[in-house]
User: Fold this.
Amino acid sequence: MEQRVSLLTLGVSDLKRARVFYEALGWATGAAPEDDVVFFQAGGAVLALWDRERLAEDSGVTDGGGWGGVTLAHNVRSPAEVDEVMAQAEAAGAAIPRHAGETFWGGYSGVFVDPDGHPWEVAHNPHWTLRDDGSVDLG
Amino acid sequence: MEQRVSLLTLGVSDLKRARVFYEALGWATGAAPEDDVVFFQAGGAVLALWDRERLAEDSGVTDGGGWGGVTLAHNVRSPAEVDEVMAQAEAAGAAIPRHAGETFWGGYSGVFVDPDGHPWEVAHNPHWTLRDDGSVDLG
Assistant:
C-alpha cells in the first residue's frame, strides 16, 4: 500500500450548508448544484462532502454521532497567516474552540470546527517544510 | 485558505498497536520508538497517530466515542490492486466491513477498518486520474 491518502470524505447533515461554508473559505468545486457529493481538489488529494448516513453505510461502520477521532490540519507559512485563516473561518461561521496562540510543540495554531463538527487545526509549524505548492515535506 | 489538507491525525488508544498496523501495510515513519506521536509522510500531506484523548482535548471537541463522520480513501490504478491492498490490510489485522466489489458509482472498491475504528476505502475510480506519484487530479 503506497504511503498516501487519496480522498477524505466528511459526512455532513446539510450538503448545501457545508458546501457554502467551504466555498466561503475560498475553495472551489466543479460539482453541479444538484450533485449529491461535492469534491474539492485538495493539494494532491481530494476532500469530499457527502451525506453522513450514506457515508456510514458505505463505510460499513456505526455512527457514534459525534466526533470520532479524526482532526484535519491546514499548515501555513507564518503565524500571521494562521490568524488570517482563523479569521476567515470565523467569518464563514465556524465555531472556534481554540483561538490561535503558541503551542506546546513550539508552533502557533488555532482550531476551527466546520458546521458538521469536523475540526481543523490551522498551524504554523517551524519544524516542517512547506513546498511552494503547499505540500508538506517531513524531510 | 489554500485548497489543501496538510495533516490528518487519527486518534488511537494504543499507539504501538496502531503504528505496527500501518507499518504492516508497508508505511515507514521516522518516529523514534518512544515518541508519543507517529508521523507518516502521506503523499504531499502527513498522517499522524496520536492518543485519542489528547487529540480531542487539543481539538477542543467532545469525543462521541465511535466513528465520527470521516472516511479516508486510498485510490489505486486497477481493480487487481484494490484486491492486493485489501488482502494486505486483512493480513495486518484490519476488520473488513465491505469486501472488494463493483460500486454504484462505476468503480471497484472495498473497505477496511484500522485497529482504532478508522475506515479506509481502497478504490479504483476509472473517472479519476492518478499521477505517477499517486496524487489525484480531478481535472
In short: Chain A touches chain B through 71 residues (CB under 8 Å).
